[in-house]
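dumping this here before i forget
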Amino acid sequence: MIDEVKYSNFTDAAMPTKEVKFDKFITLFVNHRPVYGIGKNNIDEAFRALLEGSSSDNILRNEFT
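structure:
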């Protein structure tokens, strides 16, 4: 998944990608998650982990760009 992001625009920019926008993040999550065994509690845990580095209780869309 990391390589998918890293080389997603390599042919256009000749440089590896280091960041993803929120839309791409959601697409990666959906495409690479296990089909079974992931529930709402797992998604809540993932977003709580993201919030640990945030200064508020919300993650703004522009924080993913």
